[in-house]
Specification:
Elements lengths: L9 H5 L11 H15 L13 E7 L3 E9 L5 E10 L15 H4 L4 E5 L10
Parallel strand pairs: 1-4
Antiparallel strand pairs: 1-2, 2-3
Length: about 120
C-alpha cells in the first residue's frame, strides 16, 4: 500500500491546481521518489477477480484521500487490485470517494473497509 498517500503527495498535487505554474521543487522530487518506491515494492498489482469480495483500505487527510482495493486468493493472501487517490476540495473533505472506483462490483459483493478516518464511517454503501 502507498501508506499516507495524501500526506506524502501534497506538493505534487498542488502543481495540478488551476492557474498554478508547474514548477517542480525538492519537495516534489522527494514525493515522486516516495511514490516510485512504494509502487515498486510489495504488494504489486494483480488482476481483478469479479467473483471475489473486496477489501478497501482508505487513508484521508484535509488535502486528499488515497485508497487501495484488495482481494484475497484461495489461501487468504491479500493482493492489491487498485491504487487510487485524489485531492479534495473544501466541501469534499467531508466524504470519501474510494469506493466509487469499484462501485460497479461493490454493489454485488461483500466489501470490508479498513480506515483510521472516522469520516468513512458515514459511507452510505
Amino acid at each position: 500500500m502507498v501508506s499516507d498517500y495524501s500526506q506524502n503527495t501534497v506538493h505534487m498535487r498542488q502543481l495540478l491546481q488551476k492557474d498554478v505554474e508547474f514548477q517542480s521543487n525538492k519537495n516534489c522530487d522527494k514525493e515522486l521518489n516516495y511514490i516510485k518506491s512504494a509502487l515498486l515494492s510489495r504488494p504489486i498489482l494483480q488482476l481483478l477477480d469479479p467473483s471475489s469480495d473486496l477489501i478497501l483500505q482508505i487513508d484521508g487527510s484535509f488535502f486528499g484521500i488515497g485508497w487501495v482495493v484488495y482481494q484475497s486468493d484461495d489461501y487468504n493472501n491479500l493482493h492489491v487490485i487498485e491504487y487510487g487517490g485524489q485531492a479534495t476540495t473544501v466541501s469534499q473533505n467531508r466524504w470519501h470517494s474510494g469506493i466509487k472506483s469499484v462501485e460497479w462490483l461493490a454493489r454485488f459483493k461483500k466489501v470490508t473497509v479498513y480506515t483510521e478516518s472516522a469520516r468513512v464511517l458515514h459511507l452510505n454503501c
